Automatic annotation (TrEMBL):
Taxonomy of the source species: Bacteria, Pseudomonadati, Pseudomonadota, Alphaproteobacteria, Rhodospirillales
CDD domains named among the record's database cross-references: PseudoU_synth_RluA_like (cd02869)
Record's protein name: Pseudouridylate synthase
Keyword Isomerase in record: yes
Domain named Pseudouridine synthase RsuA/RluA-like: residues: 16-165
Biological-process GO terms, alphabetical: enzyme-directed rRNA pseudouridine synthesis
EC number: 5.4.99.-
Keyword annotations of the record: Isomerase
Protein family: Belongs to the pseudouridine synthase RluA family.
Keyword Isomerase (UniProt): yes
Amino acid sequence: MTEDEIKARILFKDQDVIVLDKPAGLAVHAGPNSLDHLELYLDALKFGWSMAPRLAHRLDRDTSGCLLLGRHDKSIKRLGKMFMQGRVEKSYWTVVHGTPPEDTGEISAPIHKVTGKGGWRIIIDAAGQPAVTRWRVLGRGDGLSWIECTPLTGRTHQIRVHMKHLGCPVRGDVYYGPDPESELGLHLQSHAIGVPPLSTGKDWIRAEAPPPPHMVQALFMCGWIG
């Protein structure tokens, strides 16, 4: 990934925020297995500001799509408050194995992080944190379903664990899916985001990301027409 490639993935920019189409496979933070990560490129997104933009939330490394960055201290503070109050609209697209029995629904199932010899995982557990995901089927085909998910809470791996709980694990999910050796790529995308105005007289901030290349074939199979 180069600075120019990162700049080319900007979906929206004003004086307060940047919405970036984060590619799948790029971690947002440094880590033991993340030598290449988004924070290495944030200086390239200053665009005349004295400080680099900062993450207002996070996406898993293998999840692509809309990622919101605050460009200054005031916007970061306001965005943090909006996320806490549930005022940020988030829409995810996923392609899952199987199909739900209904066309729409809501999953309210607490999730809990457990750590063992093989690392950590997220499970459904009554002792965990409350987690709620609304979903609706957008298309079906060839044993797969294309689902729009709206998380009402922001827990780690929430959509992936809730889809598994629904009986429809996310395609390409090596942790919670049926094939731990899958090389299909995680079929989960932060497809669209909406943010209330941060400055007086401004409109809502809205951005939508195109589906990542590794999801396109499965989306076509489920009826997406591009």
